[in-house]
């Protein structure tokens, strides 16, 4: 047997239904953003690794040219050991 809801109950049920839909959409949006952030993180880590290789190669060149030492990253002066 079907029971017809009162007007206030129908309004409340519709509000709940709408809120569930909004939350579901927000969850989907957040999951998509998380996926995008994960990809961006992977891209940045890869770029960082490339920069480290470039730095190592540059230091090798400086060591061959000036002898053993290190590059001061603030002053950009090469300091021999």
TL;DR of this structure?
The protein is mostly helical and about 80 residues long. The chain is about 75% helix and about 5% strand. The protein has one domain (about 5-80).
Radius of gyration: 30 Å
Largest sheet: 2 strands, antiparallel
Cα separation of the termini: 92 Å
Q: Strands of the biggest beta sheet: in what spatial order?
A: 1-2
**Percent of residues in helices:** over 70%
Number of domains: 1
How many DSSP H or I helices?
1
Average pLDDT rating: 97
Shape: rod-shaped
Q: Summarize the helix and strand pattern as letters.
A: HEE
Kindly list the characteristics that best describe this protein:
81 residues, mainly alpha
